[in-house]
Amino acid sequence: MSEQEKMNEEIQEENIETAAEEAAEEETAEDNKTEGETSEEKAEADGEEETPEKENEQKEEKKKGFFHKEKKDKKDEKIAELNDRLIRQMAEFDNFRKRTEKEKQQMYGIGAADVIEKLLPVVDNFERGLAAMTEEEKNTSFAQGIELVYKQLMTTLEGLGVTVIEAVGVEFNPDFHNAVMQAPSEEYESGIITQELQRGYLYKDKVVRHSMVMVAE
Predict the structure, then answer these.
(1) Per the domain annotation, does 217 fall within a domain?
(2) What is the C-alpha separation between 90 and 86, in angstroms, rounded?
(3) Does any domain span residue 122?
(4) pTM recorded for the entire structure
(5) Is the per-residue pLDDT at 155 higher than 70?
(6) Residue 187, helix vs strand vs coil
């Protein structure tokens, strides 16, 4: 093969390679163009989704969600308010119940003390009658019956909380005793009660009647 022919053959091969490269570059450009068009179409498609109607729908959904949350919050606040009100009313009712019970006990105590005070003269008469009996009269069935009634009455009063105030041999206390006389005493020191003229009584630590006493000078 001559030199001329070799040169022609190399030129043809170079032309073929150049044509192939140009064809590849055109194909790559076409692909890029196609991808660009696809991206633009996608962007346009996305743009079509973001229409005013779509935006309004999204706003409405957000608005509904906001109102739903606000409604739920208001409902929780109302429940908390009602619970708080219920707790306060229960506390007030409990205080009212305790106060009513206390007032009831106080009224009962006042009423009971008033009745007991009215019964004490009856007790005094029983004691005077029994003390005035002779030994012979005390052995009769009548006197024994009187004594049984007296004991039953005192047992009933004790069951209600009535107790006798101590007097003779105890230091005078104005909270429990009423001194009507003072006299010298060889047996007791000054200020000590020497004689009880009338019994005094307590009803549950409350004085129903003071003891009427004589105190040593």
Answers:
(1) yes
(2) 6
(3) no
(4) 0.54
(5) yes
(6) coil
